[in-house]
Amino acid sequence: MTRLDKIPLAETRLEPTRAFYIHGGGLLKTFTITDITESTEVSAFLTTTDLTHLIAKAKSDAATKAVSIQLDKPSVFSTAITARDPSGALVATISGAVLTLGRQTITYAVGSSHHHPIKLSPVHPASRADEFVIESVPFLWDVVDGRRRCELTKVLDGTRVEVGRFVAESPRDKSGVLLVDSREIDEILAALTCVAVLNRMDSFRF
Question: Of 64, 60, 67, 66, whose CA–CA distance to 32 is shortest?
C-alpha cells in the first residue's frame, strides 16, 4: 500500500472558508482556538509570501474575540488535553502516552455528532506527517516547514487535495493561523487534529 505522504498532491489549491487563530504554549501546553473568519482576509494568506504582518493582525484580532475552544492539560505530568467550549462543556479529549511514539486519540464527549474516536499516528516512525481516517477517508497532516507551515490534505481519487493549512511565524511556534475548507472537513475536527500535531510528544520528528 502506498504511504499517504507519497501520494501526489492535486493541482487544485486550497479554498478556505474558515480561519482560526490558535494560541499555544506555557508549561501546561494550554491552547486556545478563536474563530477570526469575519475579520480575516483569508485569500491573503494564500497569495502573500511574508505572512508576519498577517499573523500579527490575526493574533490582535483574536485578542478581541471570545475563545471558541479552550484546551488544557490537567497537570504537568498528564498526557491528556481536554477541550471545552465557552460554557465549560467538554468537547473532546486528546490523549497519547509517551511510549505510543506520537500516536494520539481524539475522543469526543458523549452526545457529540462524532461517534468514533479519531486516531492520529505517524505515517512511519521517522516521518513528520500524521495520518487519520474519517468515515473511511484518509487525511494527512504534513509538516512542510517546521511548524511554520503544516498542510492538511484529504485523499480523493488517488490524489491528495489540500483542505487545511496552519501557518506560523517560526518553525518552532505553536501559535498561528489555521485555514480550513469546512466543506471538506469539519472545522472543529480540523482544529483539534492541528493542535494534536502541534503538541505531539516526539518533537524530535521535526
Answer: 67
